[in-house]
Every structure is written in C-alpha cells, then in structure tokens.
Write a structure and sequence with these properties.
By secondary structure, this protein is an alpha+beta fold. It has 2 domains: 11-22 and 143-202, no CATH class; 30-133, no CATH class. It has 5 helices and 9 strands; from the N terminus they run αβαββββββββααα. A 6-stranded antiparallel beta sheet has the order 2-3-4-5-6-7, with no helix packed on it. α4 (144-158) packs antiparallel against α5. The radius of gyration is 23 Å and the shape is elongated. The two termini are 29 Å apart.
C-alpha cells in the first residue's frame, strides 16, 4: 500500500457523526416506487407476445399482488386485478417507436402526463415518468458530506483498496496506466480534503 494519506487516523470514528448532515426527515424516495422498464419487458418477451403476462408485485421481497400486462400494437394494457389498489382501473400506456441508426426500431413509453418518450415509468397511483412523480433518487437526498464520502470510498474501491479513508491510499492496480492512477489520486485528494475540512469545522 502507498503511504499517501491526507486524513487523520481517527477520521472514520469522527465521521460517524457527520457535520452539517441536516435534520433527518423521512422522505419518500423514487426507489420505493414500483417501476416498469421497456428493457425488462423486451427481455421477458412481453412486447413480442400477443398473450397477457402476469407479474407478481413484491414489496421488500414479499408478494403483495399481481399485475397483468398485455402488449397491443400501439399501447400496453396494465391491469391490477388484486394488486396494491384493488379498485385501480386498467391503464393504457401509449407505445411509440423511433428508428435506430443501424436499422430496426426502439420502443418507448409515452408518459401519460408530460407525453415525453421515456424508457422507465414509476407507479404513483398510475404509471408515470420520474419527473412527473416529483420524487428523487435516494442519493439526491444525501447531504454534501455524505456525497463526498461516498465518492471518496468509490475511488478507493475502484483501486481495489479499503474503503477506510483513514488508511493509506491504495497502490496502483496491476494493468492501470500511471496517468489514470494519478488522476484518481488527485480526484481523491480534492474530495477527501473537502470532507476533512467539514470535519474540522465541526470540531
């Protein structure tokens, strides 16, 4: 391991109480919503079949209902016979296609609200695009401190080293160009320095 390290030995213990992390608020995040992906439907054969497909809806690994999908020429019919909302009416999601550069077509959903072409829809009373749910990914709710630490630890993982930021910076992995390794080192120094500065402000 390289001897290079810009963080104190007690960084990890102090980091358990991150500075300026804000007030902990329970917020509904995008990951908590059921999603419908064009790619997944292609792989499972839903879009190329004339027969309805039944998909079990799971919540934290437990089945909570069934969703029936039936692909028609220009729309996808989504039915919820005994899903989350038993009174939910079938939804018809318009399908649109664009030409690919090397031939063939690519299929998209058309968001029921904003009418934009989209590859993934999320359930919020009915399926709609990410922007129309007005929700964000979990990472977007993290504080600046959290994002800096996540980025710094990812750099260390990419270099096959320990995530512990108080440990020496990892050596250059076998096969990695020296210029690439140096760039990751500089990037890590900037990110970790900012995290340490926030820690010192708290002390």
């Amino acid at each position: 391991m390289s001897k290079y390290s810009i963080l104190p030995n007690d960084f990890e213990s102090k980091a358990k109480k991150p500075p300026m992390s804000g007030i902990s608020v329970k917020v509904k995040k995008l990951e908590s919503l059921m999603r419908l992906s064009i790619t997944d439907l292609h792989r499972s054969g839903v879009l190329s079949s004339d027969t309805p497909h039944s998909i079990t809806i799971q919540y934290f690994g437990k089945p909570i209902g069934v969703m029936k999908l039936h692909a028609c020429p220009n729309f996808l019919s989504v039915d919820y016979p005994n899903a989350i909302q038993s009174k939910a009416k079938p939804q018809h999601i318009i399908l649109t296609r664009t030409k690919c550069n090397y031939g063939g077509f690519r299929t998209w959903f058309k968001c029921p609200d904003c009418k934009k072409k989209i590859a993934v829809l999320y359930w919020q009373n009915y399926f709609k695009c990410r922007k129309c749910t007005k929700l964000h990914y979990a990472s977007q709710y993290k504080s600046e401190w959290d994002r800096l630490c996540v980025k710094a630890k990812k750099i260390r993982r990419d270099l096959e080293g320990s995530e512990n930021m108080s440990q020496p910076f990892p050596d250059r992995p076998k096969g990695m160009h020296m210029a690439t390794y140096f760039n990751r080192l500089v990037e890590y120094e900037v990110v970790a320095s900012k995290a340490f500065s926030m820690l010192r402000l708290r002390s």
